[in-house]
Structure formats: C-alpha cells, structure tokens
Amino acid sequence: MKPSIETNATNNTTLFHQPHYQELKSSFTRPISESNFHEGECFFQHQVGLSEDKSSQLSQFVRNYMPMQHREFYEKMPFLLVSSMDEKERVWASIIVAHPPFLQESTNVQTLQESTNDLTLPYQAKPMVSLARTLDDRSIHIETMLLHGDPLQNNLKSEIPIGILGIEPHTRRRNRVNGRVKGSVAFSNSGINDHHETVSFLLEVDVTMGNCPKYIQAREWNWKDRRREEGYGNVSRGLWVLPSQLEEFISKSDAFFIASASKESMSSSSLNPTEHDRRQGLDVSHRGGKPGFVTVSRTISQVEKTEQTILEYPEYLGNFMFNTLGNIVTNPKVGLLFINFDNGDLLYMTGKAFVAQGFQSKPGAQHTVRFYLEEWIYSQKQVPFEWKYLSESIYNPQVQFQSSLSKVNSNKLGMDSIVVRCKDRKKETHDTVTYTFSTAVALGTLQKAGQYGTFLIDMGPSGVVERSWTLTSPGGAGLYEISITVKTKEGGLVSNYLYEHMWPEKELRLKGIEGTFTLEDCIHDLNETKYLVFIAGGIGITPFMSILRRKKLQQLQSIIPQLEKIHLIHVVRTEQDLVFRSEIEKMVHHEFKDVFVFHPFLTASHISEDWKGGRGRLSKTDLEKIICHEQLLETQVMMCGPFGFMENIENIMQEIGLEKGRLHSEQFNF
C-alpha cells in the first residue's frame, strides 16, 4: 500500500498526506464498506499491524445510538466540547457550557464591575440548568450560552454535522457522540445584560463511543463568576502567527482539544447520509500529557511568505481507532482549543495538520502531529469554572527522551515506575494464569479493590509495550505483592508472551494503579443498599474477585450496613472456563455463608446433563429470578465483560426497570 506521502530525506521523517482512496481500499482483504471505520482510520490500523479480527472487535464499541449510561452521562455534564466547520470549510473546536447559576441572577456586568463590595450571589446552592437532555437514544436537545468570540456562533446551522465530547475530569471518564443538527437553530438573548446569546438545537445521533481514560489530568471544577475580573470579555484575533505570550502558554499546557473532519464531511452529499456514510463526520478529541508535550516553533509560511506558528504533539498509544489521525490523513483541516485552567481564558486555532512518522516521533508515540496555524481567536475569562488540579495521568510519557524505562513517571506511586518481580504463577484454567509479583513498595496500601494496574513489558525485539490488567490481589495495608490474572488469547501478543516467558524471578515495570470500578466509587447510597449483583462475562470476573477477597463479610457489612445478599453471576462458554470456581464455592459455604449466592452460566452448544447451573445467554427471565422487582430500589448492579455481553445486560436492566444510576460497568477497551 502506498498512500500519498512526502519523505524528508534530511531527517528521515515521513509526512502522510491525503491517500488515494482506490489504492488504499485495495490494500485491505476485507472491504472497507463492511467496517465501522472509514478509509483513513483503516489506513492507520493497517499501518500499525492491527488484525482485521481486532478491528472488528473495536467496531463493536461504535454504536449508532446512546446506551443508557451515556445518556445519563451527558445529562449531568456542565460543559461539552464541540467541533464545527465554518463557511470556508475550516474546522474549529469549541466549548459550550450550561447556564451558570450566577447568571440566573438579574445583576448585570456593569453593576458587578462598579461595585466596591463583594456581591453575595447564592448560586452554588442553585441547581444547574441542564446543558443537554437526551430525548431518546438517538437525539439530544442542547441549550447553551455562547461564549464571547466562540466561532460556533457563526458555524451552527441546521443540517450541519458536528462532533461532541463529554469529559468528566475528576473521574477521567469521557464519551463521544457525532451527529447532525436537525431542524432550526434558535438564537435568543439570555435575558442577562452580558451580551451573551443563548442557542438551542437538536442533535440527531449518527455515531457514539466511549473513550479510554488515558492522558487525562484529573481536575475538579466549581462555578466561578469571572465577570469582575480584569479583561473579562476581551477578544483578540490574528492570522498565521501567535503572540509570544500565547506560544508560551501552549508550551506549559498539559491538555488541549482537537477537532477534525473526514473529507466526506465537506461534501454536500453528507447532509443526507446513508448508514455507511455515518462513519464520516466531525470529531472532537482530548489530547493530554506532561506540560511541554506540545512544542511551539515558527517557520515561514509558503502561502503568505510570513512567519507562521507551528505546533507539534505526540500521538500516544490509544484505543487503535485512529479517529483523529484517520481524519487528518483524508482532510488536513483541524481546529485546536486550549483552555487556561487558571484564569478561564480560551485560545481557538484553525489550520492544517500532517502526521509525521520517523525517528523524530516523540517518546511514547508512534506518530507526531504537526499543526500549521492559519487563524486564532483569544477570548479572556470566559470559562465560568475554577479548577482544582488533583493528579497527573499515570499514562503520561516523559517529555524529554529517556534512555531507561526507570524514568517513566507514575504519580500514583509517588515515584518513577517500579520493578515488580514474579514470585509465583498459578494456572487457573487451561488458558488462564494468575501471576503474582513481589514489590519493594507496599502497593496494597495504594490499591482499592477493583482497580487495574498499568505495566510496561519489555518483549525484546518486539519492543516495550504497555498493558493494563485488573489487580486480582485483595490489596490492603502492608502488603508487598500484587497479582494479575490473564487469559491467553489466540494471536494475543502480550498474553502469549507472558504465558511463555513470565516465570518466577522475571520482572515487569509497574507505572501505576488506577480505576473507579470499586464499591466506594460506584455506589453512592451504601446505607440504602441491601442487594449487590455482580455480573461477569469470561475474564471480566477479575475485579469482583479482588473486591470479594478484600472485602470480607464483616468489612462489607461495615460499609454496607443493610447488606442482605450478594449475587455473583459468571457467564462462560464451558465448565472448564470457570476461573476461580473452587475459591468462589468456598466463599459461598464459609466466609460469606448465607449471604453469597453463585450463579454460573454456560453458553456452549453441548453441555453435560449433570450441569446444575444456568444455560445459554443471560435472559430477562434469568435476571428476574435473581433481581426481584420489589428490590430494585435497594439493588446495585456492577458488570464487567465483553462489549456485546454488557450491551445485552444493559438492555435487559432497562426493560426490568433498574434505575440508570444503579448499573455500573467496566470495559477493557484500552
């Protein structure tokens, strides 16, 4: 396959430009029309050696509707990121916010600015006016206050494609939805003497997906009235080159947002998409790293023969969907948005981007994106939030090149990544092994039951790879060991490497421990919970084993005082696939006697007549036997497993009538 590329012989860097579609399509044995990914995304998947089976698995995470948890997620968001295209077909990234409670007051800006006393505005106690309301699983109604200088004000029109990203910084959770504005776009004055305009519109959903939590710095937000701050509402603009103070701001940033569009998004035919065309559209994505991961320089523009600002940033290892890179290789027009988390300033930029591959790619990245600025907008004191920095992402690679893996950062451990040494391996089933590692640090103190660890594995000629696995060890104060339970997959690069090479005294490096799939993080009404239901598909049982091993019955009853029953449903193909079966049965008869019920299910076509457990895929009838309708308001459900498995459970729970906030899930798609 030879896409349209440019090679710089001086520095051995390859710039990928727009590929020829027919050449690109001919390189795939499976027709691209059968994929949920467009040509550009498939190009990068093919380039990094992603198998068609793996690509097909990833396709399962791309939906044409919003699952229940996504609907709930968007409705509680105080802000969303949006991608749009202007009349010159340039792409912009924007931020939209819910109506701040303090702007529900009638006090105008002039009064605020002229007053010498602090004005008491009891907005922190006011409920937030919803930014997004999901009318059903295919449509979202959005009402927002446009911020000064935001290009979205001119770009938002009926029938245009847009992309939306919801991000919850304190949990690092994020979800995306791409779609089209349907019907009219209503602009109106907000009724506040602040020159802000309110806009409302309906988004028809084309594509939704969840994104992994990598590279997001954790932050908490609170409302912040900035109308009395110096510079509030000032907007400046420019072409080609940024002022030096803005270039310096970028070089210190640890996050930004990038909007991109597939080439087909620019054609008029995209206004009436077919099902296959729904892969096309606008995206907006988050990019994060250590301060300095974005570098700034200047060159002479080949168009205007004047100075031009260039940004470069690394594309770190992600979920292998390549939405942004795939768009760039088909359409180089992108928009960037930088948020100043200290003072609420916004820097919007639009220009062209190219993907570089070669020895100049930055540490931890397979590719580097080079952005050439064309126009910028700087709007001061516009984001009505104050942010509290919590922690850096454990995934952030070092900005400067390091010769040793010992320099890989892990804020969760409070130190550089650490060596963990294999002390034991236990074969759980024919294809599943538990590896136990000793550590020089009491990691049990840091671990919460249900969390995962991120490891670096030196695979020799194949290089160093990064993987995350649930920690099946119980954790606890003073423990100097951790364990992971890994299912060996056919064709699985890392799982097979561990199976063949990870024996006692062999070493890995641990970057950190993270995750929110814990009792404490998932369940907020512990005092009112009587019934816990754990649903596991295959190796998805691992977080529940960690929870059960850590939370002995007495401990569980101390944090869930009304607890009456724990149900563990484990769905596997054959009886031989029941990982931890003997240990679980001991819990049923001893540690959790009279409280714990185990429900194993087998899905194989041929099952022994002696089998006493469930048979076939979990059905509504099966779950209604376990979860009584009268107990729904006292029940919490946690599930973990393959995408299709959890989607089925989610649909059943919705039919049964379980409230959205009582169903919690964990996916291993990163």
UniProtKB/TrEMBL annotation:
Name the coiled-coil region(s).
Answer: none
Q: Which InterPro entries did the record assign?
A: Cbr1-like_FAD-bd_dom (IPR008333), FAD-bd_FR_type (IPR017927), FNR_nucleotide-bd (IPR039261), OxRdtase_FAD/NAD-bd (IPR001433), Riboflavin_synthase-like_b-brl (IPR017938), Split_barrel_FMN-bd (IPR012349)
Query: Which N-terminal stretch is annotated as signal sequence?
Result: none
One Pfam family recorded for the sequence: FAD_binding_6
List each copy of the FAD-binding FR-type domain by range. Answer: 415-520
A GO molecular function held by the record:
oxidoreductase activity
Q: Gene3D superfamilies, alphabetically?
A: Electron Transport, Fmn-binding Protein, Chain A, Nucleotide-binding domain of ferredoxin-NADP reductase (FNR) module, Translation factors
Q: Which SUPFAM superfamilies match?
A: Ferredoxin reductase-like, C-terminal NADP-linked domain, Riboflavin synthase domain-like
- Please report the name of this protein according to its UniProt entry: FAD-binding FR-type domain-containing protein
